[in-house]
Amino acid sequence: MASAELPVLKPADYGTDQDVRWCPGCGDYSILAQMKKVMSTLNMSREDTVFVSGIGCSSRFPYYMNTYGMHSVHGRAPAFATGLKSARQDLTVFVITGDGDALSIGGNHLMHVLRRNVNLNIILFNNRIYGLTKGQYSPTSEKGKVTKSTPMGAIDNPIHPLSVALSCEATFVARSIDVHIKHLADTLEKAVAHKGVSFVEVYQNCNVFNDGAYKWATDKDTKADTVLELEHGKPLIFGKNRDKGIRLNGITPEVVELGKGITEDDLLFHDAKSADPTLAYLLTRMSHPEFPEPIGVLRDIDAPCYDDAINYQVQQAKETRGEASLEKLFNSGDTWVVE
Amino acid sequence: MSTTTDETTIVKEIQPLEEATVRFCGDSGDGMQLAGTQFSNTSALAGNDIATFPDFPAEIRAPRGTLAGVSGFQIHFASHDIFTPGEAVDALVAMNPAALKTNLGDLKRNGVLIINSDAFDKKSLGQAGYETNPIEDESLSGYQTFAVPMTSMTRGAVDGLDLSVKEADRCRNFFAMGLVFWLYGRSMEPTLRFIDAKFAKVANVAEANRRALKAGHAFGETTDAFRSSYKVDKAKLAPGRYRNMTGNQALAWGLMTAAKLSEKKLFLGSYPITPASDILHELSKYKNFDVLTFQAEDEIAAVCSAIGAAYGGEMALTTTSGPGMALKGEAMGLAMMLELPLVIVDVQRGGPSTGLPTKTEQADLLQAMFGRNGESPIPVIAARSPADCFDVAIEAWRLAVRFMTPIVVLTDGYIANGSEPWRIPNVADLPKIEVKHPGPRNEDDPPFMAYKRNEELARPWAIPGTPGLMHRVGGLEKQDGTGNVSYDPANHHHMVLTRAKKVANIASVVPKQEVMGAESGKVLVVSWGGTYGSCRTAVARMQAAGKSVSHAHIRYLNPFPSNLGELLSSFDKILVPELNLGQLRMLLRDKFLVDAVGLNKVQGKPFTTTEIADKIESLLG
Questions:
Q1: A339 in contact with B at a CB cutoff of 8 Å?
Q2: B307 CB near a chain A CB, below 8 Å?
Q3: Whole-angstrom Cα distance, residue A42 to residue B496?
Q4: Contact (CB, 8 A) for B362 and B530
Q5: Residues B159, B161, B166, B169: is their CA dihedral positive or negative?
Q6: Which of A35, A218, B303, B578 has minimal CB crowding within 10 Å?
Q7: Is the distance from CB of A165 to CB of A191 less than 8 angstroms?
Q8: pLDDT tens-digit profile of A93-124?
Q9: Measured on CA atoms in the order B485, B491, B492, B498, is the torsion positive or negative?
Q10: Phi, psi of B130 (to 5 degrees)
């Protein structure tokens, strides 16, 4: 963080002079704008920040940020970021990825970066389609999705990214929507504040190959009934008139109407700080149209970070075995002299 | 320590020898690798030059007593410089019939053959395919055969130590060691020290191994069967302090040293794979040297994490074997595009695919050269022997940072697991590796040019955290100078040429190709990697016989040394022995239009000196 004497950077100061080459109307623009805004709000240092991405439309992101950046290979950004962050703990590292990049080719790396709890901020742009390769279905596309590669409909079950993240022991899990800019900025800020891996899924519209995938969540008329904003410690309430809620029936969530004998106290209360991921997991299983889909922070817990641990072991080794000396090492054990 | 002599009453004859080759072989659970390693270390400590060749099956424990489960360890030791683990064996220790069957062919006529006779029961003989017991028939009459009931003698030695029969029998290898130690006049002290350290927490096992070792030694001394023992004098190696090193260990130490010499942390991203895993194990031991070891989820993550660390400004390394490098190909291409320093170690093994994981081969040269999409030139250097791995590791990093490039280091299973004496360098004499990072810039300075090159065409290594140098790297083609993404056709052509030229420039800073022998003549033997020892020995033998043969061993495979073409053209015939079907030969023919002849062997085994000498002979006509 900059000291008080330094000029406060405006969002535009975090952008590069490069032409942004996303399709007009792409949801990525909104995420880029909010990222710059968040960096400005938090007065983040440009030279201490690195954006690492894989391949895909979203992965062009680093070229548009006036920070350090690496546009890497498909699906592997978490691995690059793990090496970078382990070697350079002083840097703030973001991973920018898409649903194909993170969940298909990079599924393995996503799983491991999450379970290791490397102190990174992973932003997953989920448009439920392959944009850069021009419109094939993705791991998050709905079953039956008709695309260029699935003319008779997709036969794979879609992945729920947040379910995956929680099952991989992610310590910070959140969701937002590209056009809900205030909510998005707020979620990104919280992700940056979290120590450990933060995983943010952003519902993002691809207006060329999958336009309106999240129309239900973004339309003024429907969003109050289809989206549920999570707040830690608060009951799960939604609806235009805030008259609906989520209650647990056994271990199954159900939508109930408030009134008629049901009060707030009957509802499920959100606990983002719970060490047990079970309730957070239940939230990830709530899908449109049966349920309103939760946005906001599902989980935010403290746990030891990989990058701290790997460097701590170095520290510990130095303390117990003393400062490294090649001379000593070379001459240790069985040696002999030839005169 | 210096030499130690056991004060034993030696009444038997001691025959002086210049050199000897001993092989321990037995079941893969018999501890033959341990026996071989102990004998090697002891021989090295006694001042001999040594070269070793461990050879073991890919299975952790193949079914007991089977031919497939035989594990062996060969040691060649001498009172002069040696370069190979030897071919014909002077003394063979066979712990069971299967080991005898698979190894007897390599024992010299009238060589010493020590057999654990207790293991020659009906079942084991049957498993090895013997119809009659070779100890009892005439089939071993051509050797000095000593059938020793090692199992029962070991059991006797450890009696009263509260060990199960199985535990007692596991000490057999120490009995065998003790016997061979006696045979070659070796001190038991280093091994006794090893036992103390290794089994410190299990006092009865330590005592059992001590007793078994001493029992073996005493048996050699007292039995009437052995009429003489042997003595190999100290080798006249260059003065200095020595220790015994395997290739993998020397490589790990070289890499740690390179990190120190450049004042960098060492980041290793690796995924376990035979025969490279020991480098990961070794580096993991030395975290106090600012070594970060990351055992990644796969080979791809391993190399990618290393590239991330390189971008962060640290010394980055990934270690693997052939199949692993195949997976790393895409990321290696990226590292080449990013123009970041990165050391990629490939400990070659038998291929293709899983191939022969525990056996040696040299067939990844073309993969190292070309195994990536697009025009992706990456320098390649190769180690020639276990101790040489130390120097090659440092050299690799020196070139990588100077030219801002990934670099491949090739070794192989034979070098990696084999050992030889390593002369301990004086750390103060090792030249520092100078690494320059551009410093901070102000807002009103001209924009930072991430791809502006120096006279050797290397770009600056600007590291995150430096104000004013913010830049983006990536696999999309970059505009020369600025590093901005560029789809300009002429720029792409220019950048492809520039990257190729940068790698070619390395030839101007590496030593000229040396040659052992005359710089012109009838036959030039050209080798690379682990075949160095057998080629050198074969050529030396031919030269001693007055033949017009020279030897050039190539360390720098991409780019080749600048004088190599001229050297090749100075000989009537070029012979390229390789443990592949002619990969270096193909490169030499392509680059220099010479009619190089190959000697090729792909059997998972190194060349014997004789194989090479015979081929040279045939070319001399």
A1: yes
A2: yes
A3: 41
A4: yes
A5: negative
A6: A218
A7: no
A8: 999 999 999 999 999 999 999 999 999 999 99
A9: negative
A10: -90, 130
Q: Which residues contact A271 (CB under 8 A, 6 or more apart)?
A: A232, A233, A279
Q: Residue B233 contacts by C-beta under 8 Å, 6 or more apart in sequence?
A: B16, B18, B47, B48, B79
Distance between A73 CA and the closest CA of chain B, angstroms: 7
Q: Is A299 exposed, middle or buried (0-12, 13-18, 19+ CB in 10 A)?
A: buried
What is the C-alpha to C-alpha distance for residues B85 and B20, in angstroms, rounded to an integer? 10
Predicted model pTM: 0.95
- HEC per residue, A190-215: HHHHCCCCEEEEEECCCCCCCCCCCH
Burial of B158 (0-12, 13-18, 19+ CB in 10 A): buried
Q: Does A70 touch chain B (CB under 8 A)?
A: yes
Task: Report residue A158 as tokens.
Answer: 């879609």
Distance to chain A for B80, nearest Cα, Å: 13
d(CA A251, CA A85): 39
Q: Which of residues 221-250 of A touch B (CB under 8 A)?
A: none
> What is the reported pLDDT for B1?
39
Select from B539, B457, B462 the least CA-distant residue to B497.
B457
Both structure tokens of A167: 């099952």
The C-alpha atoms of residue A29 and residue A58 are separated, in whole angstroms, by 10
Mutate to test the interface with A, among B285, B303, B433, B470 (most CBs of A within 10 A): B470
Q: What is the token pair recorded at A298? A: 């599902």
The tens digit of pLDDT for each residue in B378-410 reads 999 999 999 999 999 999 999 999 999 999 999
